[in-house]
């Protein structure tokens, strides 16, 4: 019955396959070449390949890296990114990374610094108004995220008391930089 | 005129339809003739609707050279069952209310209709439904085939459908690696 499938147009094959959940459907790319091309040709365009952006502190030194190609064992490549001034001082720790942006917490300055390590651009974000810089900052949990509906990046602080105290939105300026980041493909 | 002695229910519908002279005669690739309700054919098949509207229906049997007699019998059977089981008003309202759903679930009788088919007959029916522009029948048959794949590994699917694996070992490994790192959100 193998030739049956040859007579089924690729559109109909996809009609059949799209009734399956996405993940099992992707696994059907393993069936044969014809199925793979039917699935690949008719699946939504893949997003640009994700690379890992990481921020490490070791022996008092801060470094940022992009790691590429984690799929190849032992052959993955990484590259150190130059961190701008202000991101390398003492008391700096990472809140999170998002879309190639680094969000750092600066304990001594009592603020946040959003960094685009590729372009070197930075944006200092003051802490929520009701909190004072200094000790209280150490006790809070911070998060940095992108909201796709509004196109804004937000820093959310959860103080140690448990209540969400303040929300910072510094949307479009940072969002524009993220766009620039995406155009800049790390070298292989 | 040679009329296929089809299924009992289909036969009965055919007699009623013949009495009304409201049928069209379809001719399979191997020359067998089938009669189907003109109303059902026009409603369920965009191609037949076009032929009926355009007057290209042959009273001695409209040639459907791409469709074998077994598949055509199933098409006709499906049309007649559809005409019997669902009044058109109900069909219209159901198709409106389910318009936003991604797929219309097959009705109980439609499930039974495709469940009794062999693999070969099922695939022939998919082809015929596609050729005749029968969206609903295509839905039902595609649904059935997808159900046959559910919960099966690629190896099992190849076995069930007798598909030849034309990848090299290296290619398979490469695709597996891609899958291991991929996330899908659709």
From TrEMBL, chain A:
Matching SMART domains: FBOX
Protein name (database record): F-box domain-containing protein
Domain F-box: 2-48
InterPro entries: F-box-like_dom_sf, F-box_dom, SCF_F-box_component
Pfam families noted in UniProt: F-box (PF00646)
Protein origin, superkingdom: Eukaryota
Coiled-coil spans in chain: none
Automatic annotation (TrEMBL), chain B:
Keyword Ribonucleoprotein: no
Family, similarity comment: Belongs to the SKP1 family.
Lineage of source species: Eukaryota, Viridiplantae, Streptophyta, Embryophyta, Tracheophyta
Pathway field: Protein modification; protein ubiquitination
Pfam families: Skp1 (PF01466), Skp1_POZ (PF03931)
Matching Gene3D superfamilies: Potassium Channel Kv1.1, Chain A
Function: Involved in ubiquitination and subsequent proteasomal degradation of target proteins. Together with CUL1, RBX1 and a F-box protein, it forms a SCF E3 ubiquitin ligase complex. The functional specificity of this complex depends on the type of F-box protein. In the SCF complex, it serves as an adapter that links the F-box protein to CUL1.
Keywords on record: Ubl conjugation pathway
One BP term from GO: ubiquitin-dependent protein catabolic process
Domain SKP1 component POZ: 23-84
Organism from which the protein derives: Digitaria exilis
Disordered as annotated region, ranges: 1-21
InterPro entries named among the record's database cross-references: SKP1 (IPR016897), SKP1-like (IPR001232), SKP1-like_dim_sf (IPR036296), SKP1/BTB/POZ_sf (IPR011333), Skp1_comp_dimer (IPR016072), Skp1_comp_POZ (IPR016073)
Record domain SKP1 component dimerisation: where: 136-182
Name the UniProt record assigns to this protein: SKP1-like protein
Quaternary context: Part of a SCF (SKP1-cullin-F-box) protein ligase complex.
